[in-house]
Design a protein that fits this description.
Elements lengths: L2 E7 L6 H9 L6 E7 L5 H6 L8 E5 L7 H11 L4 E4 L5 E2 L3 H12 L1 E9 L6 E4 L8 E2 L14 E3 L14 H13 L2 E10 L13 H18 L7 H27 L5 H9 L14
Parallel strand pairs: 1-2, 1-4, 2-3, 6-10
Antiparallel strand pairs: 4-9, 5-10, 6-7, 6-9, 8-10
């Protein structure tokens, strides 16, 4: 029943203590953390500065600097010993009962996902739930593409696939899509057990995020139509084509809104849009 929680770290000194503290506070105690440094930092020492030390914390390195989140996750997966695999970004946090609630579902169905709470980058107060107030019981390749912020499944080891090479921006979307393609549908625990902090170190929070995601979506669409199809079935590939077209349009809409209001952050923009679009049990990937 060991759960391996992979924590990729790049410039994470300011937030890693919060993330790891939320893991240590879990009511489910049979876990290990695989802390992956991708910036050469000694995160064991960094946590020690906060008085945090735990025998369940394991530290590995990509051996590189800024090799990418997808690569760091793969290094962590290779080092993980658990029967279940979860991810925790170094600036995010778990609710204390997250693992306790998700593991039984993943044991039965192969994987499970929960709702995600999104705090304001400026005030810290919750501004949205990624799956809305009433999440669907399951996600499929259609309704999975409706939210515009990430989800973080916990998967049984036999369904925890390595990240695809060459996919950095939207790597979590591709990974979750491949998981859904493998399972058919992904069961949803409706409570928000993951708190997603979108700051300046997040991919969506960087100054050039709109341009980088524009390029990434173009490359993903090319792979879907003319390349490896992201290694998913034809039916899932069709949903992915429409889903990534929608995400590209959403990214462009955010770019236009941010040019009009340079202080606008992606979390607030996505939260405003989420209040108008609900994720339903059977919801095709709608165009913005």
């Amino acid at each position: 029943m060991l759960v391996s929680v992979i924590i990729p770290c790049f410039r994470a000194r300011a937030t890693i203590a919060r993330a790891v503290s939320s893991l240590i506070a879990q009511t489910f105690t049979d876990w290990e953390a695989v802390v992956v440094t991708d910036d050469g930092t000694d995160y064991a020492a960094a946590l020690g500065d906060f008085g945090i030390a735990d025998a369940r914390l394991n530290f590995v390195s990509t051996g590189r600097v800024r090799s990418g989140c997808h690569n760091a996750r793969n290094v962590g997966l290779a080092a993980a010993r658990g029967d279940y695999i979860a991810t925790l970004d170094a600036d995010d946090e778990f609710a204390p009962d997250r693992l306790a609630l998700l593991v039984p579902i993943a044991r039965e169905y192969g994987a499970a996902v929960d709702n995600v709470a999104v705090p304001s980058p400026t005030t810290g107060t919750q501004i949205s739930l990624v799956l809305g107030e009433t999440p669907p019981a399951r996600l499929d390749a259609g309704n999975f593409f409706v939210p515009n912020l990430p989800l973080f499944p916990l998967a049984r080891r036999d369904h925890a696939l390595p990240r695809l090479a060459g996919v950095e921006y939207a790597e979590d979307v591709v990974a979750n899509l491949r998981l859904i393609d493998r399972l058919g549908t992904l069961p949803v625990e409706p409570h928000a057990l993951y708190r997603y902090h979108l700051g300046t170190t997040s991919m969506c929070g960087s100054n050039d995020a709109v341009a980088r995601f524009e390029l990434a979506y173009g490359e993903l669409l090319e792979r879907i139509e003319h390349g490896d199809g992201l290694d998913v079935s034809p039916m899932t590939r069709h949903a992915a084509l429409h889903g990534f077209l929608r995400k590209r349009e959403f990214n462009r809409a955010f770019g236009r809104a941010q040019r009009a209001d340079p202080s606008l952050d992606f979390a607030s923009f996505a939260a405003a849009h989420a209040s108008r679009v609900a994720v339903t049990q059977d919801c095709p990937a709608a165009v913005l």
